[in-house]
Design a protein that fits this description.
The complex is a heterodimer of chains A (351) and B (559). With 351 residues, chain A is of the alpha+beta class. Helices cover 22% and strands 34% of the residues of chain A. Chain A has two domains: 2-226, P-loop containing nucleotide triphosphate hydrolases (Rossmann fold), CATH 3.40.50.300; 237-349, Beta Barrel (OB fold (Dihydrolipoamide Acetyltransferase, E2P)), CATH 2.40.50. Chain A has eight helices and 20 strands. In chain A, the strands form four sheets. Chain A has a six-stranded mixed sheet, sandwiched between helices. A five-stranded antiparallel sheet of chain A has the order 13-12-11-14-20. In chain A, strands 15-19-16-17-18 form a five-stranded antiparallel sheet, with no helix packed on it. Chain A is globular and about 75 Å long. The two termini of chain A are 34 Å apart. The relative contact order of chain A is 0.12. With 559 residues, chain B is mostly helical. Chain B has 25 helices and no strands. The N and C termini of chain B lie far apart (55 Å). Classes of the chains: A alpha+beta (351), B mainly alpha (559).
Chain lengths: 351, 559
């Protein structure tokens, strides 16, 4: 059962030649959390605003809970769509206190109970009488989320909800927001440009670029088997090389040497492919097959962020980014022997 | 793919099949309408309401222009030959003289209080803006009292043998070009002063430091660094002064000078209303020319924005110039604030002892409060939908509506009054001559003041707030009433108080449109001063000034 279904949506803003969203189709399962992930200008916010009804698509249709809300002949305005929205700047009503913000637009007879129920859900009991300007950033976000949930919306739309929070609070709120949404049993669509947010909270990630969907799947699928170069480099860091499937169908021949990969059997021997090597796949080994020079080294606490320069057979150089354990004793200019672990290597179809 | 869904909605399908042609045209119109509003059209009620408001605001002006075309060739020829050249000379020479001097005084004062160590700098900062609360016609009254044929200056002059020996009998004539020029300059320089002061305070000190490290003296820095960067501020200040001089009727007519405004007033008193329309057209053209200059200066403004980190400017030590500078600043303050207030307090005191605060006086005050209050209320009511439309539904149509609403504000009040006389006399005689005409004219004149103030608080309300309310089930009209209005209220109130005070001060339209016997404070100042009953004029003038202080804080904050 799909809660939300977008079919072949195209949206072009007047005055711009490029479409913000091109022929986009997307389904969201009831009760799931989906993140639209992509760089700024990729059309993710536009998609969200199309679902909310703040923008109108020229082509395609949108269904919410089995009801068409937008197509060539039908236009349901945002106030009748029953979606909840959490804005980047929260957009709390400055003239209303927390209670009134959360209860805004709720018509039921059980208004007081429902509002208190949601306030408890977001852990803001005791703050009902406060005004938005008297709250911290994290508290404001809780109010914004509570306000979007009160009316039990078909879907909650969250536009970059974490971007105004500082790093610590951000990590904490990721879990909080995920908990609140699951406890409320709501369907949610996030928009984010931060892959860590997306990987942490989503059931499904939709990677977008230039108005089209590049790949969709579970966080694990997206991270471990990116389907193209854009996804591989946007979601996490990645070294992307060209190569050829080896005769044994278990590895890839590259300029670096033979790199093992389990997914090679999905391809024909001799087929030209790209290969994505995550920074974590580099294992230091005195007897390792490969050798390079450390060109850059940054200590980040959890690991060393290094750039290794490998001199290839034909005399040219290949740079690899990698993470190595912080207890290694290394410095810039050191020679390093290493292996590449197959579990962080994925093959991308040549295109 | 979109058509797949049509089958689910039989209604739309039937219409499509039944009347193919009209529905195509309808679809075309619909699409065009949507594209004008960028896919987000406002509600019909909002459109119609704001459209009619803007129409009301602009009709009087258009009507005057329209009427001027029917004045007849002979009248045009006669006016062009006999009146217009002289009026143009009077108006433009006065305008140029006042503007130039107001700019010199305004900029120099602003520079002195922001950049030098003049004693009492903080107090001068705001004290020098005070002439803004004294309407120039009140200023004119006080200087008639001081320099007039039976004024204080004459007594001093004739009683000191030394002056009489040197210059002969008292020879200052306040009823002259010089008199008008003096009064208008002293009461309009704050327009330049406030804007220049704000720009100087915002101006980045790095430029001055750079210049001084390259060996420039403070004076050179003023000429080569400060002045060029002040150009936009000077430009917009000069335009304000110039527009004011063009529209002033009170001070000019009290000092018996004749420019277009006074000439229009006298033509209409002489019942030659067609000539008044012709002169109005010329005045409209002059105003448009100045507004055009303003739009040029605004474009330039963009180049001069200083966005670097702000640093507090160094203060220049005046040294031996301290005394001269202090004398100059004090003189301006004395002439533009102290003397008028002293004169008014002196005569009010006499008036009160003679029983000037009688029932009649309070009647005038009540009349002023009544018409101005109603006008301010209507302004607040009408301003909100226009601001909302302009801010949330930007399009060609909404900016046209906004611009039309500004026409009564940009153009001299006397033309609005003339338009009202034409329209109500010819088409709505039942209201003609009642006090309803008065507050309606004030609304036409001062609605834009309320719009400006409301707009500045509307800018602080993020469009996301609207969207949040929409997603929570509120249709646009409800969003406007429940969310936008409560948040816009502070700005709208400030704007309302501006319109209120402007209405209380307003003279030409009040003079021309009031019903016989319906006198306001402004009217009484005008007539009592004309008949030299100063002890009756002074209390009214003082009350007007006191009320003008209400929105001053807001006005100063704006720059």
């Amino acid at each position: 059962m799909f809660d939300i279904e977008l079919k072949n949506i195209t949206k072009t803003y007047s005055g711009s030649e490029e479409s913000a969203v091109k022929n986009l189709s997307l389904t969201v399962k009831k009760g799931s959390i989906v993140t639209l992930l992509g760089p700024s200008g990729c059309g993710k916010s536009t998609t969200l605003r199309l679902i909310a009804g703040f923008e109108r698509a020229e082509e395609g249709s949108i269904e919410l809970a089995g009801k068409t809300v937008s197509d060539k002949n039908i236009w349901i305005p945002p106030e009748k769509r029953g979606v909840g929205m959490v804005f980047q700047d929260y957009a709390l009503f400055p003239h209303l206190n927390v209670f009134k913000n959360v209860g805004f637009g709720y018509k039921g007879k059980d208004r007081a109970e429902r509002v208190m129920e949601v306030i408890r859900l977001v852990n803001l009991k005791g703050y009902e009488k406060r005004y938005p300007h008297e709250l911290s950033g994290g508290q404001q976000q809780r109010v914004a989320l509570a306000r979007a949930l009160t009316r039990r919306p078909v879907v909650v739309l969250l536009d970059e909800p974490f971007s105004n929070l500082d790093a610590d609070l951000r990590v904490h709120m990721r879990f909080e927001v995920k908990r609140i949404i699951s406890e409320a049993g709501a369907t949610a669509i996030f928009v984010s440009h931060d892959q860590r947010d997306a990987l942490a909270i989503s059931d499904k990630i939709v990677v977008m670029n230039k108005g089209v969907i590049e790949q969709q799947g579970t966080p694990k699928e997206i991270y471990q088997s990116p389907s193209n170069k854009f996804v591989a480099s946007f979601v996490g860091q990645s070294n992307i090389l060209e190569g050829k499937i080896n005769e044994d169908n278990k590895s890839v021949l590259t300029d670096l040497g033979i790199i093992p990969s389990y997914s090679a059997y999905n391809y024909k021997a001799g087929e030209k492919v790209y290969i994505s090597i995550r920074p974590g796949s580099l294992e230091i080994d005195r007897n390792g097959q490969m050798n390079g020079l450390i060109k850059e080294l940054t200590y980040s606490g959890e690991f060393f962020d290094i750039v290794v320069e490998v001199t290839l057979g034909n005399g040219t150089c290949q740079h690899l980014i990698a993470h190595i354990p912080p207890e290694e004793v290394v410095k810039v200019g050191d020679s390093l022997n290493f292996n590449i672990l197959s579990q962080y290597v994925s093959i991308i179809k040549y295109h | 793919m979109g058509q797949v869904h049509i089958s689910q909605f039989d209604k739309t399908k039937k219409i499509k099949q039944g009347k193919k042609m009209p529905s195509n045209i309808l679809q075309y119109v619909n699409r065009k309408w949507l594209s004008i509003w960028k896919g987000n059209p406002p509600g019909l009620v909002l459109i119609l309401f704001t459209f009619f408001t803007s129409l009301l605001m602009s009709i009087p002006i258009f009507y005057v222009i329209w009427r001027s075309f029917f004045a007849g060739g002979d009248r045009w020829k006669r006016l062009l030959d006999e009146r217009i050249p002289q009026l143009l000379w009077n108006t433009l020479s006065l305008n140029l003289a006042v503007t130039v001097c107001a700019v010199i005084i305004g900029v120099s004062l602003a520079w002195i209080v922001t950049r030098t160590d003049i004693p009492g700098r903080k107090i001068w900062q705001w004290v020098l803006a005070l002439p803004l609360v004294i309407p120039p016609y009140v200023g004119a009254v006080t200087y008639i009292i001081v320099f007039g044929p039976s004024g204080w200056a004459r007594d001093i002059w004739n009683n000191s043998p030394l002056i009489v020996d040197l210059f002969g009998e008292y020879s200052i004539n306040i009823y002259s070009f010089g008199g008008v020029f003096f009064v208008l300059t002293m009461f309009t320089y704050p327009y330049v002063y406030i804007i220049a002061n704000a720009s100087l305070r915002k101006m980045n000190h790095n430029f001055e430091e750079a210049a001084s490290s390259l060996g420039s003296t403070p004076l050179q820095i003023f000429w080569k660094v400060n002045l060029p960067m002040l150009r936009p501020a000077i430009g917009s200040g000069a335009v304000l002064v110039s527009l004011y001089v063009l529209s002033d009727f009170g001070a000019i007519s009290m000092l018996r000078y004749v420019t277009f405004t006074a000439a229009i007033y006298f033509q209409r008193q002489g019942m030659d209303i067609s000539s008044a329309a012709v002169l109005s057209l010329v005045l409209v053209l002059l105003t448009i020319a100045i507004l055009w200059l303003e739009s040029l200066s605004k474009k330039k403004n963009k180049y001069y924005q200083t966005t670097n980190t702000y640093r507090k400017p160094l203060t220049l030590r005046l040294g031996k110039w301290k005394l001269v500078t202090f004398f100059y600043v004090s003189m301006v303050f004395l002439v533009s604030v102290l003397i008028p207030i002293i004169v008014l307090v002196y005569w009010s005191n006499i008036g009160i002892r003679m029983g000037a605060l009688d029932e009649r006086f309070f009647g005038f005050a009540f009349n002023s409060l009544k018409v101005s209050g109603i006008a301010a209320f209507i302004c607040m009511l009408f301003a909100m939908p226009i601001i909302y439309l302009r801010s949330r539904y930007p399009s060609v149509i909404s900016s046209a509506i906004e611009r039309l609403s500004y026409s009564g504000y940009a153009l001299p009040g006397i033309i609005v009054a003339l338009g009202f006389i034409f329209i109500f006399n010819n088409h709505i005689p039942s209201i003609y001559g009642t006090f309803h005409m008065l507050y309606l004219a004030f609304v036409v004149r001062f609605l834009p003041q309320t719009m400006q103030a409301g707009d500045s608080s509307m800018r602080l309300i993020s469009p996301r707030i609207d969207e949040a309310a929409r997603s929570l089930g509120y249709p646009p009209w409800k969003v406007m009433f429940k969310v936008i209005m409560p948040n816009m209220l502070p700005g709208i109130m400030a704007g309302g108080s501006l319109a209120f005070v402007s209405s209380i001060k307003e003279l030409p339209a009040t003079l021309m449109l009031r019903s016989p016997g319906f006198d306001t404070l402004a009217i009484r100042v005008y007539f009592e001063a004309h008949e030299r009953i100063y002890h009756l004029a002074a209390p009214s003038a003082l009350l007007i000034i006191l009320m003008s202080i209400i929105p001053l804080r807001y006005m100063l904050k704006k720059y």
